[in-house]
Design a protein that fits this description.
Elements (H helix, E strand, L loop, with lengths): L2 E8 L11 E6 L8 H12 L6 H4 E2 L2 E2 L3 E5 L2 E2 L15 E6 L5
Parallel strand pairs: 1-7
Antiparallel strand pairs: 1-2, 3-4, 5-6, 5-7
Subcellular location: Cytoplasm
GO cellular component, one term: cytosol
Family: Belongs to the URM1 family.
Amino acid sequence: MGIKIKVEFLGGLDVISSGVREHKCILPLEEGDATLKDVIQFITKNVITDPKDIPVFICDETVRPGILVLINDTDWELEGGEDYVVESGDVFTFTSTLHGG
């Protein structure tokens, strides 16, 4: 059946998904089996529209430094980082803190 989640890109990070800020997604895993690491892999394979944009989001197999990651409005480090176990209805927000000038 999969796990229903929402993924948001803020702070200009929506450029990696053709300008779309909110994505309702279904992870093809069962609840209790998926972690934030699985969400990140799902995003790189299914949400990022141009493979050339993957390095904007990922560095060394994790979210690039300079991108704030929130799980249900809480910093991901307080929730276990990539090891957070995903639940249906979770909201994952990725916000770029780097701004060009």
